């Protein structure tokens, strides 16, 4: 099968020509002074995007390596951890928490809903034994966000550690690591940043380092060890293992582009694209997955499908017939996702996604007014541009 004309998936995303060119640069020895400088510069640029003065660790591997390594490092057997579940990734975090030996507490809501700061506050009031809160900032498989701006400070003010999966959160929503007092954040390069899949971007507060050092179960001399990165790389300029030189080059280029545009402007571009997409989808007769637009994510719009139309079939049909790669529900429910993430957040990409999805669903038997949806989406886009 030919390559798709448009990749509008929820990560890995389409990357710019400039990022592709950076990925094609010569591969240097990882101890070449030029690469060492590039690696350090890239860390600094991640810190700018995260808005933090905390240490930045760039672990080689998809974001999962950072999420697992960090959680294993922070969980001391028997500690009490509160996990917030409103989607697939939050649910998975809970399995890890139990697996790594902690006592799991959970607040779980439907995957079309969001855990509220008030729920978290009430739970923490009742359970002073909680030592860490785990949350997912942006549940990409269902397109909902959590109110990290409120929950982060709640944890900090009580001296509770926070562990945040922000793989699709950073640049897809306003983000303030330090202002919100977030101890451990993990982002991916291949989501809103528009970089290559293959690097986990992690910020670690001093409190989080202290917790890891106090933890006899924290991995050391292991691919999953954050302490190795702290001691060998941050402390001694020795890599625990060879980083992918090309991925770092691609990541730095994507960071440059984000910083040149401005972090706030990138976030606003995602929010604008989401507004266009939601307006178009509802105007053609589709139903949004998120119960309320107040927590619908800015990087991906999830659409609820009728029971008799399967989400995988929708994704495959749009790809085969219209050459547009969308994302299915990834187990979150019978939904399909129009992604507006990284370089595809903005301009006519949302119109392409809406056209492909709308016509696919008509082909599969739904009654929709695709034209009315596209008209409405273009009307919203036009007001943003003029
Ligand atoms: C993409 C993503 C990850 C990384 O998981 P993969 O299954 O490797 O894509 C983790 N958390 C969230 C919220 C994500 O969007």
Automatic annotation (TrEMBL):
Residues 28-329 form the Aminotransferase class V domain. Gene3D superfamilies: Aspartate Aminotransferase, domain 1, Type I PLP-dependent aspartate aminotransferase-like (Major domain). Coiled coil: none annotated. Keywords: Aminotransferase, Pyridoxal phosphate, Transferase. Its cofactor is pyridoxal 5'-phosphate. InterPro entries: Aminotrans_V_dom, PyrdxlP-dep_Trfase, PyrdxlP-dep_Trfase_major, PyrdxlP-dep_Trfase_small, SP_NH2Trfase/AEP_transaminase. It holds the Pfam family Aminotran_5. Belongs to the class-V pyridoxal-phosphate-dependent aminotransferase family. This is Aminotransferase class V domain-containing protein.
């Amino acid at each position: 099968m030919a390559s798709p004309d448009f990749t509008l998936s929820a990560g890995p995303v389409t990357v710019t020509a400039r990022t592709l060119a950076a990925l094609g640069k010569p591969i240097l020895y990882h101890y070449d002074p030029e690469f060492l400088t590039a690696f350090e510069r890239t860390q600094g640029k991640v810190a700018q995007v995260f808005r933090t003065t905390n240490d930045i660790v760039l672990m080689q591997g998809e974001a999962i390596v950072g999420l697992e390594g960090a959680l294993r490092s922070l969980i001391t057997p028997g500690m009490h951890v509160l996990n917030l579940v409103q989607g697939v990734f939050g649910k998975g975090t809970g399995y890890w928490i139990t697996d790594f030996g902690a006592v799991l507490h959970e607040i779980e809501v439907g995957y079309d809903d969001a855990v509220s700061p008030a729920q978290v506050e009430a739970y923490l009031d009742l359970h002073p034994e909680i030592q860490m809160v785990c949350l997912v900032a942006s549940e990409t498989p269902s397109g909902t966000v959590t109110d990290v701006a409120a929950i982060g400070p709640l944890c900090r003010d009580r001296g509770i550690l926070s562990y945040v999966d922000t793989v699709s959160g950073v640049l897809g929503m306003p983000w303030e690591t330090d202002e919100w007092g977030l101890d451990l954040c993990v982002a991916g390069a291949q989501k809103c940043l528009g970089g290559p899949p293959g690097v986990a971007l992690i910020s670690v507060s001093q409190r989080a380092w202290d917790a890891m050092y106090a933890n006899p179960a924290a991995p050391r001399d292991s691919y999953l060890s954050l302490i190795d990165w702290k001691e060998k790389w941050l402390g001694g300029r020795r890599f625990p293992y060879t980083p992918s030189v090309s991925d770092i080059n691609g990541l730095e280029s994507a960071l440059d582009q984000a910083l040149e545009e401005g972090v706030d402007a990138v976030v606003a571009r995602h929010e604008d694209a989401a507004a266009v997409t939601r307006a178009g989808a509802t105007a053609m007769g589709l139903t949004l997955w998120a119960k309320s637009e107040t927590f619908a994510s800015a990087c991906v719009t999830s659409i609820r499908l009728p029971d008799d139309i399967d989400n995988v079939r929708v994704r495959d049909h749009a790809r085969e017939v219209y050459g547009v790669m969308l994302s299915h529900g990834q187990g979150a429910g019978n939904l399909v996702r129009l992604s507006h993430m990284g370089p595809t957040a903005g301009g006519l990409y949302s119109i392409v996604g809406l056209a492909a999805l709308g016509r696919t669903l008509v082909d599969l038997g739904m009654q929709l007014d695709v034209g009315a949806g596209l008209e409405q989406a273009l009307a919203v886009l036009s007001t943003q541009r003029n």
